Amino acid sequence: MSPDPGSFTAVETAALVAEVRLLRDAGWRLVQIGAAALPTAMEVIYSFDLGGKITNRRVSLPVEGPHRLPSITSVYAAAALYENELHDLFRIQVEGNILDFKGKFYRTTVPFPFASRPSAPALAAKAGTNP
Amino acid sequence: MNPLLRFAIYLILAPLIGGLLAGIDRKLSARLQARQGPPLWQPFYDVRKLWNKENIVVRRSQDFYVFFFLILMVFTGGLFFAGSDLLLVVFALTLAAIFLVLGAYKASSPYSFIGAERELLQMMAYEPMILVTAVGMYLATGSFYVNDIAAHSGVLALRLPGVLLGFLFCLLIKFRKSPFDLSSSHHAHQELVRGILTEFSGSTLAMIEVAHWFENVLLLGWVYLFFAASPAAGIAAALGAFLLVIVVDNACARLTWPTMLKGAWATTLVLGFGNILFLTYF
Amino acid sequence: MPAFAKSPWVIHYDASSCNGCDIETLACLTPLYDAERLGVVNTGNPKHADIFLVTGAVNAQSGDVIRNIYHQLPEPKVVVAVGACAASGGIFRECYNIHGGVDTVVPVDVYVGGCAARPEAIIDGIVRAVQILEVKHKATQAAARGIDKLVYEPALAGDIPEILALQKVTYRSEAEIYGDDSLPAMQQTLAEIEADLAQWTFLKASINGKIVGSIRGRIEGATGYIRRCIVHPYFRGRGIARRLITEMERSFPPQVVRFETLTGHKSRRNLAMCEKLGYRVFKTEEYLPTVQWVHLQKERK
Amino acid sequence: MLVLEIAMGLYIVVLGIRHRRPLVVLLLLVQLLPMVGWELRHGEGLQAHGDLLADRLSALMALINGVVGGSICLYALGYMREYHTAHHPEVRDRRPLFFSLLFFFLAAMFGIVFSNNLLWLYFFWEVTTLCSFVLIAYKQDEESIGNAFRALTYNLIGGAAFAGAIIWVHRATGSIGLTDLIHAAPALVIGPALLLSLAGITKSAQLPFSRWLLGAMVAPTPVSALLHSSTMVKAGVYLVLRMAPILHGTAGGIVVALVGASSFALASLAAVGTSDAKKVLAYSTVANLGLIILCGGIGTHEAVWAGVLLILFHAVAKCLLFLCVGVVEHRLHSRDIERMSGLVLSMPRLSIMLQIGIAGMFLAPFGMLIGKWAVLKAVIDTYPIIALPIIFGSAPTLFFWMKWMGKLLEVTHPIPNIEHEIGRGEWFALTLLSCTTALTCIAFPLVSAWLVEPYVIGVYGRSGHLAHGNFVIMTIMLAMVALFPLSFFNYGRRVKVLDPYLGGANVESGARYQGAVGQVHALQMSNYTLAGLVPEAGVFRVGIGVGLALLAALAACLLLLR
Amino acid sequence: MARTIIPFGPQHPVLPEPIHLDLAIEDEKVVDVLPSVGFIHRGLERLVERKDFQEFVYVAERICGICSFIHGQTYCQGIEELMQVEVPARAQYLRTIWGELSRLHSHLLWLGLLADSFGFESLFMHSWRVRERILDQIEATTGGRVIFGSCKIGGVRRDISPEALAVMRKELDVIERDMREIVDVFLGDSSVKRRLQGVGVLSRDDAYILGCVGPTARASGVAQDMRSLGYAAFRDIKVEPIVRTEGDSYARCVVRCAELFQSVDIIRQAIDRIPPGAIETKVTGFPDGEILVRTEQPRGEVAYYLRANGSRNLQRFRVRTPTFANLPALVRMLPGANLADVPVLVLTIDPCISCTER
Amino acid sequence: MSYLGITALNLKWALKGPATRGYPLAPRRVIADSRGALAFAKANCIYCSVCRKKCPTGAIGVNRNQKKWAIDRLRCISCGYCVEVCPKDCLSLTTYMSPPTVTKDREVF
Fold first, then answer.
1. Complex-level ipTM
2. D517 close to A (CB below 8 A)
3. Residue-range domains of chain A with CATH
4. pTM, entire model
């Protein structure tokens, strides 16, 4: 069992970069950036690690797009890949990404596959199996 | 023996011996790697299969260069075994190798292009040593003719130990063996795919394979020349050189071209020329 | 003795696999399984390979790569789908980015099951593939020998992908003549050529089921338009094109009294052939900056 | 004669003063004043036994001048028209001057090869220097003028040496005839011979003087072809070869040989580092002239035989290459070798000619290689250690020629044929030279027997030659290479044409691939320059250092002789 | 200077998996590089919406065929955490043994591929020969060679009998001896050193700020190992991160070689201390809440973000795999490298593209 | 300068003989408990379809009316989930491998 459940703190979009910069200056390492399209909000979660401790920052964007987010690549250059991912999978426009693949990162068949909850029949149609 | 007759014997035996050597190479390499390895005749199976495959090219004329590579390689070996001038053999060998490079350039794919470039670097690396070998043999025997050198009464290796070592170094490059399998490796796990051979397929690839057999026999013949005074020792030395190449192949990482170039030239300078200076002034 | 049995060279591509089958494929070459005993060499280069081992399910991107590699394998060639994903999409078949097994992009000859496929199973698959190689090789040889067994018949919708592939190979030589590799015929997509099927009738020349030439025609009033006569480079100079044109002319109904065709101004061989068949130049027009169309016509005798 | 000399001198002085080049003025005065004083003092006493020298070597040189010079002039007609109209409209059209200088120069070249009187020779020598100066500066921009002055300066050093040699030889033998010099007791004339060799070394742009030749490449291509590869620079090696019997076996001779040998090795190595076609040709010229100088320095009959052959082969093939590059430069607006990709499609005939030229420069069984082979043998028989620079020099030669050849053959995309844009005069010259290049290889034994061997026998009583068996083998090889075009009868049969292997990322037709960020890229390939290992400038600097050291050794020899 | 651009991949013999690099080289020096991914993107994260949370273990295991077991384990740990399930100690130990076995096979696989990337074929063969011994142990205990299928929510599917554990412990000695032979070559051979030392140096600060994880970070002096968080049996078995400070390819090789023996040691300790008892806890109900769970894979830290709302399907499942975190370092290392070193550099981060793209 | 380590290892193995197992010429070495092809015992089956529902890849098909049980061998990942859930224990994992096929047929029992 993981002894480290971590904490989730909400952050305003506008304050994100400053907050992240504070974390970096304090020596935190960027672990991941991930999003979740929930019925209530589009959440983006930034996780940081310092000596095995974890802390998370949650940015909630309104359900209805377009979603915009400032890039934190000026603080953590390595965030570029995550931010491309946010764009390609969640249709979150990340502004100021230093290595912008311009939507050609994953080149998925379905555009922005995570952007909305799928309708169940669409997936069921793909599955259909019976003898 | 009549030079033409020897040429004919070479023409018939070289592909057999060369192919067999390639088979021994694969078998032995496999054993050194704790594998069972393919049958001894595997190179012949490969060539036969390639001959039956479709030939895919990028530029139609690229195959002609390979054809000329083959016939010039046969010709070069023929020159050598017919007892001709060693320098001429070197030049013919270069000419043959150049045709392969041109073919790769012609194919115009990035991989074969870099392969060609590296092949040129390889040629640049071994060429001086091969010339020095010819010169050393001349200085030791007074003749550039393979015939005369073979008929020389002394064991050349004793007078040309440095040259012999330098020549063995070049063998590693010429046999396309690790650590110097830069332009094209025997196994494709390298950064250039198959390098210079990338765009050749089917019968053309088979031709290249056969040309290498001829080339290898020629090179081992040259090793023999160092011990020609005693034929048994000569054959043993040629085989020994071949085994050495295989063992080294399996004991080395591939090095980079600057290392190869510097290494080969340093060897030529120190071993080759050192030997020649010794021969001239002492 | 069979030519292919003892020297199957493989190329391996990881489509969208989880790596499991990948590393097992690689394990086949290592000391304990040592597929090189059977002559297997992992070439890493499609142009040297006989057997194409694909692991993993296919997505849009890897599908293109598989298709590219497949076309660069010289004939005869065999595709082996290694593992459950390559065979059917496996556990990932419901993912949004997965199109299914390898057979959705290229024809698969042998399926090897398992998740991950075991080295022994992969070796079995290779052994099976070698037999198929041998069969295919015999068929090709028979085709080459049986050039007199050429069949000329209308092409069906199912032949269209093969005709498109042939078209692209064929127009390479035209691109070289005109110094322009953006010729429309080379850029045509499958969808476009399938749309053509509505207006044009296609004829094909095939040997033992392999299409080596094709032509298309359309009727407008009393004129029959003949276009895109293509012959595989290997089979050129054997009268196939001439025969295709004549067959096309014959297939037009009697009310068609005039045939029209066209070719580029620098395609000397085409022009010579058309003139031999009785066609005469009646106009030229600018088509592309690099190509001028030469229109030729002929009355029905 | 004296008047002309003074007039020429004054012209240079004026030029030097106007462009503020004190060194030029100084160098000129250093040679002009003693010469004038000396000539005035001796006046009628300056005699040679026969003013003309017409032996096989002169004949060969004259033949080269005639054929090569003639075809270049023909070529220049069309080339210069285009030069002014299409490519350099900013340059003032001074074609009459250009052509008169060209002819003036050719006349002087004939003068050099047929003069026995050293004073005449000196006069013509200076005329070529002056022609070269004016032609290099033809463009009249700052770079050209600077390079022209550099050429002038370096050549004036040679001129000074020449002047010194004349005075010395007169004091030593009482004659100023070239033949008198050659036939005098070697011990007596080794000093002037070395001075003349020094003059030859500057004229042939050997290290450390090579820089002027590289700078001279700013001149229009016919000038590079005529003056700076096939004829004028040959005057230098001509003189050294004439001195060969005297130099043979002397310490001074060894130094001269070393100058040539190091020039060969280092210039070859430097050529690897550049992709400017004319610069490559210039380096290669320095290198090959180095080989000939080496032959002169060694001075055995074998060496001289090889040297004369090299003059012939080099003149023809190099001239062909220059002219081809000129044409290509006008078509592609660049003389970068990397830009010549696909030339085999856009200018097929020209690319074949280029290939002939290149093959002629370094490949068995073509001319230059036979020469090199002979040099190697000659060297091994005398000073095996000098084989070192030859052996190490040939390897880079192979590299830079081959990568050029490869670039010509490489085709990534279909390119339209633009060969029809090339003028008739150019074609004629190119065809003539290609045929000559091929012919000299085929007829090489005849050339050797008629022109070279008699000369060498005349000097030494025996000559080097190629063994009969080897000659037969070379002919077989030549025949095999000549068979190459025959293979096109089978062109495109039994093969399938496909795009190159691009890691499975091929897209569209032709050689394009799907790169990162969804972009489609075309192929792009460039030859190696080995910049990390042998940087061009670095090698050149080393070369100049070596050259200066050898020059010091030469000076030491001269001082010891006094 | 003029450039050559090489389309490196997606199909390329030195690349075990498809990734594409536009390599711009001058002579053979890489001057510019742009990666392109997406060849293996399957979109399996969305499968949580279709598979129930228990069945999803099978999918999680197939995120990657090399570190398969630890993926399954991480997923199970996360769900167990959400559902407050106490996993029996024996199961924790078994998970640790299998996890370390998979680290062994992954590292040996990597050593072989690394040897292959610089053309050392015999070393490749010997590494894989030894690896097969480990696979035999895995197959004997789990029934699978690369995909174990032995982890489930609440515990494990199979037990290892005491006899089998004894056999394994004995076998470990042989494996350790064989590995020692190979590692000696890797760390001592001159030609290997020539190809690895000083190649692709990554400073500690770079490694940290680029977010490197696992051996890549540890070779640059970042002492970071998730096993010291104390999940599974690591509560009892202490793990000291193996750290080097040079930050070059050789250091990364040294770290992984040392970890081989560390893992053997961990397995030995686990076998010695494994308690008897049940191997699974019955799980009822559905998970709810969110969690970020991390474990140490052979390639480094893997982070799972799980979000559930009390239904049988998770709301969001997100994997950040070690290779994803190490890719920026690769892009940083490549420019300036020799073309011949590109495969070596690609391999020194031990890429697992299939995890990365999911 | 150490090149001898690997040479010693190489030579050791060259003398010792290859480690190759010899499949397919030699029989396959089977490890007990290895997860191979799924075996179906028709006798006990009640066609309850639990296995079909649980199968992660949808490889199993069950038709209660016709009393047919089918498996797509190329889809089966030998995970054993069906074996665990089968109420009648009529499914089991064998150590055999299903052979390669040229067609994608289902195996129907």
1. 0.87
2. yes
3. 7-127 (3.30.460.80)
4. 0.88
